[in-house]
Amino acid sequence: MSEPILRAEHLGITFGGLKAVSDFNMTIGKGELVGLIGPNGAGKTTVFNLLTGVYQPTEGEFFLDGKRMNGKKTYQVVRAGIARTFQNIRLFKQMTVEENVLVAFNESFTYKMGGAIFRTPRFWKQESDMHAKAIDLLRIFNLEGLANTEAANLPYGAQRKLEIARALATGMKLLLLDEPAAGMNPTETEDLLNCINTIRDRFGIAILLIEHDMSLVMNVCQRIQVLDYGRTIASGLPEEIANNPQVISAYLGSDDDTDSEEEN
Amino acid sequence: MGNQIIMFISQIFNGLKIGSVYSLVALGYTMVYGIIRLINFAHGDFIMVGAYVLMLTIPAIIACGLPAWLSVVPAILVCVAVGVIVEKAAYKPVREKGNNMTALITAIAMSLLLENGSQAVFGADYQTIPTIIQIPSIAIGDLKIDGATIVTVLLGIIIMIALQLFVSHTKQGKAMRAVSEDKEAAILMGINVNSTITLTFAIGSGLAAVASLMYCISYPQVSPMMGAMLGLKAFVAAVLGGIGSIPGAMVGGLVIGVVESLTKAYIGTITGGVITSAFADAIVFGILIIVLLVKPSGLMGEPESEKV
Amino acid sequence: MLDIKNLSVSYGAIDAVKNISLHVDDGEIVSLIGANGAGKTTTLHTITGLVPAKSGSVMFNGHDLLKERNHNIVTFGMAHIPEGRHVFTRMSVQENLEMGAFSLKDDSTMSDDLDMVFGLFPRLKERRRQLAGTLSGGEQQMVAMGRALMSHPNTILMDEPSMGLSPKLVKEIFAIIKKLHAEGITVLLVEQNAKMALSIADRAYVLETGSITMEGDAKELLHDEKVRKAYLGA
Amino acid sequence: MKKSMLSIKQSYIVCAIGVVVLFGVLMGVCETGAVSLYVKGIIMTCCIAVIMTTSLNLTIGVLGQLTLGCCGFEAIGAYSAALFSKLLVANGVVMNDTVRFLLVTVAGGLVACIFGVLIGIPALRLHGDYLAIITLGFGEIIRVIIQNLKVAGGEGLDKGQQGQALIGIDRLANLYVVFWITVVTVVLLFMFARSRYGRAVKAIRDDEIAASASGINITYMKVLVFAISAFFAGIAGGIFAQYIGALTPSMAGWLQSINYVIMVVFGGMGSLTGSIVSAIGLTILPELLRAFSDYRMLVYSVVLVLIMIFRPQGIFGNWEFSLPKAINRIFYPKGKKGKNGDAGKAEATGVEETKEAKHE
Amino acid sequence: GGNMYATSEDSMKLSDNSVITLGSVTTNSGAAAAYGEAEVNGFKLAVSEINASGGILGKQIKLKSMDDKGDVIEASNAFNRLAGEKDVIGILGPTISSTTGAVAPLADQNQLPSIAPAATSDSIETGGYLFRTCFKDSYQGEIAAKFAAEDLKVKKVAVLYGTGDPYSSGVGKAFVNAAKKAGLEVVAEENSSSADDTEYSSQLQKVQAAGAEFLYAPYYYSAAGPYIIPQARAVGYNGYIMGPDGYDGLQITGNKARYNKVLYTTHYSPDDTSNKKVQKFITSYKKANNGASPNTFTALGYDSVYMFKQAIEKAGPNASRADIRKAIYGMSFSGVTGKFTLDSHGSPKKSVIVLEMKNGKPTYRSTIEPAK
Ligand SMILES: Nc1ncnc2c1ncn2[C@@H]1O[C@H](COP(=O)(O)OP(=O)(O)OP(=O)(O)O)[C@@H](O)[C@H]1O
Ligand SMILES: Nc1ncnc2c1ncn2[C@@H]1O[C@H](COP(=O)(O)OP(=O)(O)OP(=O)(O)O)[C@@H](O)[C@H]1O
Ligand SMILES: CC(C)C[C@H](N)C(=O)O
Ligand SMILES: [Mg+2]
Ligand SMILES: [Mg+2]
Predict the structure, then answer these.
(1) Which ligand is nearest to the CA of A42?
(2) Which of A91, A120, D354, E320 has its CA 20 to 30 A from that of E303?
(3) Beta-ladder partners of E59
(4) Domain ABC transporter spans what residues (chain C) (predicted)?
C-alpha cells in the first residue's frame, strides 16, 4: 500500500495535568471514511484540534501524505490539505454564503495586492472564475439559492452544510467532520449522509467523522475507532465495534440498562 | 548605605500613596467591567463628581460640628445617583440595541458630558478642598511614612476583602456573577438582571465616592478634568491586575503606583541619564504591555481561552 | 397547567412562531417536535419571557406569563433547561446547583435538595467542586437538569436535552425524564430525537416553520406515516 | 442576484466622473474666492479626518479590532514628514514645493507603516479590550518618546530642544493636492476591502478560528491591515504637519485617538461611506456649535450620547453609498428596490462590486 | 493650485464699522480650560470698562470669543474664521503656546494683528503680526537663576520640571543654563512626564537627598499649590522653592507655614500700591466676579485689550489691520502687568517682580529690571 493520507503516531496532549489524548494512532488511506466515536469528553474534538494545529501535541507526531505536520500553524495545515468543521458552528456570520466559500478559496487566487487595487484583467478573471466555482460547490448542498444570504440568517441545517462546503473549498485531501448531524432530526441526518457520500465520491477525499448518531456512523463509516479517557479502546469494522462489550459499557449503553443506570 | 535603603523604602511608600488611590478607583472599574464587559470610561469622572460634592459639603458638615470626612456620605449618595442614572439613561438602551463598541463610545461620550457639564457648573478653574483630616505620619527611625497612605492602603484592602466576600458569598453577589456569565440563564434562575446591574453600578459608583475622599485627602484639589488621567491610570491598573478580578484591581493599582515612583526615583541613575523620570508614564505602559504579552489576561485575571 | 393561545413571535421581520396554541396538563409529558428552525426554542423562550411575544397569551396556573417580569416566572414553579445548557462556566458544579435555588425564599431545604440531585446524578457529586465550564457535554447537561430541579419546579421545559450526547447518556437522560414524570412533574420536551421523545411522551405537537401542523397522542404520532417520513427518517 | 443597469466597469467610470465633478466644484469655489480661508481650512481638516477615519475603519470596522493608538501613528508620520522636510531644506536640496510635499508625506506614511508593523506583531496577539488598552499604551509611549526627543522639539534638527513644539515646518499642504490624496486613499481602501484581501479580513473579524481553518494566515493579515492603517495615518499626519506648521507631542495622545474611534463607530463600523460622512460631520459639528460658545462641548457630548442611544449601529450601519446605484435608481426606476428607506438592506445584498464610496 | 494663503487686500478699515470688533481664540474646554477662562474674564472686564468710559475713539468694542479646546487645528480654524470676518480688527489669544505656534504664521498671512496674553514659549516669535503680553520662558528662567545667586545667595540648586509641557520645560531648561553660568551647582535635575501630575514625592525626595538649598519648580499654580510644595515639605525639604508667573494665584492648602520660603517671579504684586492700575483692576474684578480674585492670566488678558486700545488710538479712526499692527510694533505700554516695551520680535521687555509667600499671602520682595 502506498503512503496513507494521514498517519498519526502516538499523538498525545496534556492540559495542566489532564491527559486529554494519549497514544493516539491512526492511518487513513485515500478515499477512506473513518469514524471516531467515544463518550463525551473522551478527547475526540481534541484529536481534531491536534490534527489541525489548533493545539500542538505534547507527544507523538503526525504526517499528511508523508509530510510531518507537527509544529505547523492551523493555516499551514489547512493549506497542506487538512480541513475541518466545528462542533459549535463557526461561520463568518456577517458575510454572505458565497463569501464564506470564497474566503476558503483564498489560496486559489493568485492575484496580488496590486492586482486588486488596479483591478487588473487577472483580478476580474479570477473573481469571476471563483464565483462560478463557489456556486458549483454550493449547488452540491442545495445552497446556491441562498448565495447572497447572510450566513447568520441561515437555518441551522444549512449552516452545518455551509461549513462543510467551506471546508471543501480549501481544496483539502482529508476532511474532518465534528458532529455534523448534531441537532438534526433523523430525516435531516439522512439527507446529510447522502451529501457526505456524494462529496467523497466526487472529490475522492478521505474523511474522518466524529458523530454520536449511531445510525449515521454505522451506515457510512468503513472503519471506526473508539476513544475513552483519551485512549483508544477499540477500533475495527462497524459491526465489530457495535458488539464490543467495552464500547457498549463505555459508550453505547446496553439497551436494557436504561432503568438500572438511574438507580446506581 | 542605610540611607539608600531608607530612601528606597520611602520611595516605595511614595508609590503606595498614589497606588492605593489607583486601587480604589480600579476596584470600581473592575466591578462594572466584570458584570457587563464595559470599560466605563466615565468612572474617572464619577470621582470628579464625588470630589465636587466633598468640596461643597465639607463646610456645612464642619459647621454642624461633625468630622469633615463624613461628607463622604453625601458624596456616596450623589455618586450612586449619578452612576445609576448614567447606567439607566445611557448604557442600558445602548447595551440592548448596540454592540460592545457603541457601548464604549457611549461611555466616552458620557465622560465628556460629565466633564463639560461640571465645567459649565463649576467653571474650569481648579479649586482647593479644605483639609479633610490630618492623619499623622508615622516615623520609624529616619523613615517617615505618610499616614494617609497607610489608611488608604488599609481601606483598599478592607474594601477588597469585603467585595470579594460579598461577590462570592451573598445571594446578590452570586447573582452578579451569574449575570456576568450568562444573562439568559440568570433570568431562568429568577435573577432580576436589570436590578443586579444597577446594584453593581451603585456599588462601583459608591466606591468612586470613597476613592474621591481618599484622593482628596492626599491631593486636595478639584477640577472638571481631574478624573480623566486618574481614570486612565486606574483603568490601566485594573487591566494589569486582570480586569474583572477584585484582588487584581488592588494589586494592579499598587504595582502601578510603585512602578511609577521607582521609575521617577531611579531610572535616571540606572540608565545613566539616557532615560529620565519623564519616561515614567511610558514605563508604566511598557510594563503593562509586557505583562499583557506574557499573560494576556493580566496578573490575576482568569484566562479567557475559547474552547474550539 | 400551561395553556398557550394564539401565540405569535417574531424577530424583526422574521416570523418565528405563527399563531400557535398548545396546552400541557398537570403531570403530562408533552413533546414538541419539528425540523431545525421550526420555532421550538422560540416557543420555550417566549414562555419563560426570554423573548417577547407579538401576540397571544400564555397562562400558567393562573398567571399570565406574558405580563409577568421574566425573572419571576421561576417562582411560579416553572423551570426551563435551555438549549445549549447554559451552565455558569466559571462556577463550580455545586454553585451552579445553588444558583438553581436562587428563587427560593427559604434555603433551609438546600442540603436536602442537593442530596436529591446528587442521588439522581451521582457523577455530579464526584465533581461538585469542579468548574462547570470544564465538564464534558453530558456532565453539563446533568448540571443543567439538576439546577432546574433545585427550584422545586412542578413543570420543566426541556430544550433538546440529548443534543451532542453519547448514546449511553441519551438513554440515561431519558430515564431521568421518566423518573421525574413518575414523581408527578410536568414536562414540556423539545427534541430532535423524535423517536425517543415520542416514545416517552403522553402527547405531542409537530411544529413546522412556526405553525403547529399536527397534534395528538404520542404513540399514534410515532406510527404516523407523515411523521415517520419527516422526523424519524424511516 | 440583482442585475445592475450599469456594468461594474461603467460604474467605476461614473464614480470617477463624480469625483472629477466634485473637484471641479471645489476648484470653482476656491478660485472665484467664494469661500474664505476659514472654509478652506475646514475642508482641509475634513480631508485629514477622512483619511484618518477611513483607514482606521479598516482596522476597527473591517478587521474588528479596537485600537486606541491611531494618533500615535499620525504623530509619527507628522514628525517624520516635518523633520524630513527640514532636512531636505537644510541640505540645500531644491525641489518643487508640491514634489517636496508629496515626497515627505509619503515618507511620513512609510515611517508610520514601519512602526505599525513593529507594534502590530506583538500587539495583535491580544483581542478586544486588551488590544485597545495595549494600543493606547503604545500611543502614550510614542507621545512620551517624541516629547523627550531633542530633534522633535523647537526648530528641530540641530536646534532641537526637547519638550518644545516643533515649529517652522514649511506649510506646503495645498488643498487640491490633499483632495486628491484623500480620493486616492478612499479608492485604495475600497479596492482593498473589495478583493480577496478584504474578504479574508472580514472573515477574521467574524471568526478567527474559522478563518485560520480556511487557510488564512491570521497574523499576516492582521499585521498587514495594521500596517496599512498606520501608513495612511502617517500620510494624514504628514499633511497635518505641513498644513499647521507646528507640532506638539500631545497630538499622539489617547484622547485624540478616541476622537477618531468615535468617528468610525459613529459612521457605522465597516462602512466606508459612514466613515467619510461622520469624519466630515463630526469635524464640522463643533464648528457649527460655535454659536453655543461656552456650552459647545457640552452640546457636542449630549448629541453624541443621544445618537448612540437612538442609532447604536452608527448612522450608516454597514451600508455603502453608491453613485451608480443612485443613478440606476433615478434612470431605471422600475427596479423594485427603489424605496429610500429600504435602500440599506437592498444594497447590502446587491451586486457587491458596484458599491463605490464616493465622498461628498 | 489654489493658494490657500492669499492675503485679503480688501481688508476693512475701522471707519467702515460703527463698532470695533476684537476676536478672541482661547482654550475654554479641555485640560487647559482654566487658563483660557481666566484670560476671557480679563478681556471682558477690560472691554466693559472701556465701553463704560466711552469706548475707543468713540466707538464701542465688541468681543467675538472662540474656543480652541487647546487643539492646533481648532485654533487655526477659529483664527481663520475670525480672519475671514472683515470687521475683526485684531485677535486676543491664543492661550497656550502650541496653539499660538500654529496660529502665528496665519496671523502673518492674514495680516491680522494678534496679541497672545500668556503664550510664553520662546519659539513662537515671528516678528510679524503676533505679539505677546507675557515674558518669554527663557527670560524668567534666567531671572530666577540670577535671583537665586545674587539675592538668596544659595550655592546648591535643584530643578524639577515637566518635559511634557513646553512652558515648564522651557523655563526649567533656561534656568539650568543660567544657573550654571551664574556659578551655581545644579545638584539635581528632575523631570515629570507632564505638568499636571499629582505625585512628585519621588523626585522631591531625590532633591532633598541631594542637599539642595533652592528648588526651581516651574509649574502652574494648580500643580505647585496643592501638590509640589506640600509634598516637598512632606519629604523633609525645607529650602527655598521658586517658580515662574504660573505660580500666580497659588492655592494654599492645609498648613500655611509650609508655603513659607516659596517665591515666584511675576508681572504684578497685588499689594503693590505704587501702581494704581493694579488696585483698580483687583477691585473692579472682585466686584464683577462675586469677590473672586483674579490671577495672572486674567491680568495679562486685561492688559492685552488695553494694548489694542492704545494702538488703535494711535493708528487713528481710519486704520486698517496693517496700520494697527504698525502701531503695536515696538509700543511702550504701562498696565497692570507692568511697564514695558515690545521688542522687535513682539515680546515685551518687562521688569519682573519677585513675590514671597508669607503666612500664606504673596508679599512683595523685589523688582528686577530687564537687562538693557
Ligand atoms: N483547552 C482546553 N483546556 C483544558 N481542558 C481541555 C481543553 N480542551 C479540551 N479539554 C478537556 O479535554 C477533554 C476532551 O475534550 P474534547 O472536547 O476533545 O471531548 P470530545 O470527545 O470532543 O467530547 P464531546 O463528545 O462532548 O464533544 C475534556 O475533559 C475537556 O474538558
Ligand atoms: N435571535 C434571533 N434573531 C433572529 N432570528 C432568530 C433568532 N433566533 C431564532 N431565529 C429564527 O427563528 C426561527 C425559529 O428558530 P428556533 O431557534 O426557535 O428554532 P428551533 O425549532 O428551536 O430549531 P433548532 O432545532 O435548530 O433548535 C428560525 O428561522 C431562526 O433562524
Ligand atoms: C496660559 C498658559 C497656560 C500658557 C503657557 N504659558 C504656555 O505657553 O503654554
Ligand atoms: Mg467534541
Ligand atoms: Mg432550538
Answers:
(1) 1
(2) E320
(3) E56
(4) 2-234
Span D194-233, pLDDT tens digits: 999 999 999 999 999 999 999 999 999 999 999 999 999 9
pLDDT at E97: 87
Q: Which of A87-91, A251-255, B1-5 has the lowest mean pLDDT?
A: B1-5
Give residue ranges of A with CB < 8 Å to any D CB. 52, 54, 73-75, 78-79, 83-84, 86, 90-96, 99-100, 102-104, 106-107, 109, 111, 113, 116-119, 123, 127, 147-150, 166-167, 169-170
Question: Considering only CB atoms, which chain A residues are within 8 Å of D349?
Answer: 96, 148-150
What single DSSP character describes residue E59? B
At residue E54, φ and ψ (nearest 5 deg) are: 100, 0
Among chain C residues, CA nearest to A189: C233
Spacing, Cα E226 to ligand 3 middle (Å): 19
Residues A81 and A98 in one domain: no
Residues near D306 by Cβ (< 8 Å), separated by ≥ 6? none
Beta strands in E240-323 (DSSP E): 240-243, 262-266
Architecture of the domain whose range is B7-123+143-294: Orthogonal Bundle (1.10)
Q: Would you say B275 and B267 are in contact if contact means Cβ atoms under 8 Å apart?
A: yes
A·B CB contacts under 8 A: 4
Closest CA to A40 of C91, D358, E101, C166: C166
**A123, A153, A183 - which closes a domain:** A153
CA distance B252 to B237: 4
> Per the domain annotation, does D349 fall within a domain?
no
The range of the structural domain enclosing residue A235 comes to 6-88+171-263
- Burial string for D230-239 (b: 16+ CB within 10 Å, else e) reads bbbbbbbbbb
- Taking an 8 Å cut-off on Cβ atoms, the answer to whether E29 and B14 are in contact is no
CB A78 within 8 A of CB A170: yes
* Among D5-19, E66-80, E114-128, E199-213, the least confident range: D5-19
Quick check: E218 and E141 in contact, CB under 8 A?
Answer: yes
Pairing of strands C29-34, C186-190: parallel
Cβ of A33 closer than 6 Å to ligand 1, yes or no, is no
Answer yes or no: do A142 and A51 share one domain: no
Q: Do residue A72 and residue A132 come from a single domain?
A: no
**Residue of chain C with shortest Cα separation from A157:** C36
DSSP B301: P
Ligand nearest to the backbone CA of A56: 1
Q: How many CB atoms lie within 10 A of CB D27?
A: 15
Let me know if residue D78 belongs to a domain: yes
Residue D348 is assigned to a structural domain of this protein: no
- A166: in domain: no
Residue length of chain E: 372
On whether residue A39 sits in a domain, the answer given is yes
Q: Model confidence at D341, in pLDDT bands (50, 70, 90)?
A: very low
Amino acid at the residue B180: S
Ligand 3 atom showing the smallest separation from residue E120 Cα: 8
**Chains A and C are in contact, defined as 3 or more C-beta pairs closer than 8 angstroms:** yes
* Percent of chain D whose pLDDT exceeds 90: 52
Distance in Å, alpha carbon of B290 to nearest chain D alpha carbon: 9
> Do A231 and A103 belong together in one domain?
no
Q: Tell how far CA E213 is from the center of its chain.
A: 28
- Residue D337 inside a domain? The answer is no
**In this predicted structure, what is the pLDDT of residue A264?**
34
pLDDT at C181 over 80: yes
Q: Which candidate, C66, C70, C94, C91, places its Cα nearest to that of C82?
A: C70
Could you give the number of structural domains in chain A? 2
C191 Cα to the center of ligand 2, angstroms: 14
Q: Do A44 and A119 share a domain, yes or no? A: no
| pLDDT at residue A259, as a whole number | 42
Kindly tell me if the per-residue pLDDT of B44 is higher than 80: yes
Proximal ligand: closest to the CA of C39: 2
Q: How far apart are CA D146 and CA D250, in angstroms?
A: 9
**Whole-prediction pTM value?**
0.91
